[in-house]
Specification:
With 229 residues, the protein is an all-alpha fold. It is built from eleven helices and no strands. The N and C termini lie far apart (40 Å).
């Protein structure tokens, strides 16, 4: 790493974490709100949970590949923090796998027992995830901002979004915009292809509003900052 290289702007890490807190934090009540046998509605909620878990998995894989090895190499003081992050990723991955099995079982028939098992499992997953996100923000993010370059950071972000479909990408960006600092949104837009920069904000906002209306019954669901203690 050259001393002349600009360092990573980590503000969007908090924005991404806010999305996970909001969307997965409301997942248990979404599941409990589905009537027995309503497979149309269970499909909508199941799709959402799987989207968020897959996005979380991509986010964590990006950190595992692009961030943790470099911190171990460049910052000896990061060793215990990185090992803790990796251990927490493994625990979250294991819970992720268990939840996906439950989602698929519930999606099939929207049965009462499958619904209650899934909602209860999500009840346990949400605080596990929030504990990890809080620790990462408090201990890992300052090190990332000190030892990871902007080039390395942007490569991780671009790789994470490379396989998103044209239908999903605007929804996810709209999720990010919903509670993001305007400067962070501008930073993200400035890194997008020039031809879509003038329109991406409106497209993403509209995409998430439609998605949220279908999922939550409102284009403006409760914000993560309103839900946290």
């Amino acid at each position: 790493m050259s001393n002349a290289e600009p360092l990573a702007d980590t503000r969007d890490m908090h924005t991404v974490h806010t999305v996970f807190r909001r969307e997965l934090g409301m997942a248990p009540e979404l599941v409990r709100g589905v009537a027995d046998g309503d497979t149309v509605r269970s499909g909508v909620v199941a799709d959402h949970i799987e989207l968020m878990l897959n996005t979380l998995g991509t986010h964590h894989r990006g950190e595992d590949v692009h961030l943790w090895p470099r911190l171990l190499e460049r910052a000896p003081q990061a060793t215990p923090i990185v090992h803790n992050m990796e251990a927490q990723h493994h625990a979250i991955d294991a819970a992720h796998t268990e939840i996906v099995v439950g989602v698929r079982a519930w999606r099939a028939d929207a049965g009462h027992e499958a619904r209650e098992w899934l909602a209860t499992t999500l009840d346990g997953f949400v605080p596990l995830l929030d504990q990890h996100l809080r620790l990462e923000e408090e201990e890992a993010v300052p090190l990332i901002g000190a030892y990871i370059t902007a080039r390395e950071w942007n490569a991780m972000v671009q790789e994470g979004g490379a396989d998103l479909s044209p239908e999903v990408a605007p929804v996810l960006f709209g999720m990010l915009m919903y509670e993001a600092d305007p400067e962070v949104v501008k930073l993200s837009v400035d890194n997008m292809p020039p031809e879509i920069q003038p329109v991406i904000r409106d497209i993403a906002s509209q995409a998430y509003a439609a998605y949220a209306t279908n999922l939550y019954g409102t284009p403006t669901p409760p914000r993560a900052t309103d839900r946290r203690p």
